[in-house]
Amino acid sequence: MMRLLTGASPEESFQFVPRSIEAFGSTVLVEGTDPARSIYWVHAWTVSPNGIITQVREYFNTSLTVTRVDDSTSSNVPKPHCLPVWQSKLPDRTRKSLPGLVLAI
């Protein structure tokens, strides 16, 4: 899938350079670039309580915002809302405009 998304040929190797790793409950986020910083990526892993990765999502050249859905309220009327907990830290925002995506956990 990565070759399809990045346009790399089967003969080309692709090196991931992680920039950060964050965990929110059962979700682990790893973001980084290629060595030339021309491709930006985020991997989102869902990890079970016994440490097994049960789901992997890959985002290439996409700005990602992670929000936590909170439906607790202090009044009798529930008002669900999203609390942002993480946002992509793009390596060079002035050079490239990327589509945005919100991941709710």
Automatic annotation (TrEMBL):
InterPro entries: NTF2-like_dom_sf, Wound-induced_1/12_sub, Wun1-like. Gene3D superfamilies: 3.10.450.50. SUPFAM superfamilies: NTF2-like (SSF54427). This is Wound-induced protein 1.
